[in-house]
Amino acid sequence: KNIQLWQSLLQYYSNEGDKNAIIEVLEEMVRVFPDNSDVYMDLSAYYAEQARFREAIATLKVYEKIEGKSEFVSMQKYRMYLMLQQKDSALAEVRSLAAEAPGDLRYLTMEGDIYLMFGDRDKAFAVLSEVLAKEPDNVQAQLSMVGYYSDAKNDTMFVRTMENLMRNEKLDADTRENIMLELVRYKEKTDSSDYIIKLFDELMELPFGVVQTGCMYVSYLMHTDKGNDAMRPVLEKILSIEPDNRAALLQQLIIA
């Protein structure tokens, strides 16, 4: 029962890249070391890597009997239930987490996402609306609502929700850029450039994200007929906040 010998065997097969052999060794190890939670965790990871999700979940359940429930393990199981299209099991996992942290709206939002994923739009809307009633600037719930309105073909609320996201200081930079690009692409098909310019102008007045918004604005203006005059005040505002912004300095030289 020297676990170091088993670990040496695992290392050998790992160096060989033989994952099937690794799984066989780990399966034997859980029989030899039934109380070693690390072995169960490792085995579940290899099962999941091979899309053997049912076996991975079963192994994690044994892990939980040893170590107790944790958010990390519950989230692992939740993701695999979704891969298996097991809606009820995914909901049960999320609700068990919510019961332990009733004030954490992440789990309620995840419940809404599950309903949305399985096409139950009415329940998704009800749950996500509950989240936003409690926390109007909840980014994940707003993003989920974008998906809801897209599925429901509600163009007005689809756009309005994306606009609200752009005004949300909690939105991370990468997602902000993606949302703005989506808005631009969408509105270019349905509106004149005046809408996009008006939105950019509004966002440039917010107390956050001005440099990023300004860079996107300049990039947009470069592909319109608005000319260099429209670009100058945007570049000036970027440089008033970030004087060494190289992209803005270079563009300012180009249009000088």
Summarize the structure in words.
This protein is mostly helical and 256 residues long. Helices cover 78% and strands 0% of the residues. It has 15 helices and no strands. α2 (19-32) packs antiparallel against α3, α7 (105-117) packs antiparallel against α8 (121-134) and α13 runs antiparallel to α14. The longest helix is centred in the last third of the chain and has 18 residues, at 173-190. The radius of gyration is 25 Å and the shape is elongated.
Summarize the structure.
By secondary structure, the chain is mainly α. Helices cover 78% and strands 0% of the residues.
**Head-to-tail CA distance between termini:** 77 Å
Which strand-content bin applies to the residues? under 5%
Helix count from the secondary structure assignment: 15
Helix content: over 70%
Rough outline: elongated
Biggest sheet descriptor:
none
Which secondary-structure class do the elements indicate? mainly alpha
- Total strand count, please? 0
- Compressed to H and E, one letter per element, the order equals HHHHHHHHHHHHHHH
Uncertain parts: none
Roughly how many Å is the radius of gyration? 25 Å
Mean pLDDT over the full residue set? 94
Could you outline the blueprint of secondary structure elements for this entry?
Elements: H1 3-16, H2 19-32, H3 37-49, H4 53-67, H5 71-83, H6 87-100, H7 105-117, H8 121-134, H9 139-151, H10 155-166, H11 173-190, H12 193-203, H13 210-221, H14 228-241, H15 246-255
Helix pairs in contact: 1-2, 2-3, 3-4, 4-5, 5-6, 6-7, 7-8, 7-9, 8-9, 9-10, 10-11, 13-14, 14-15
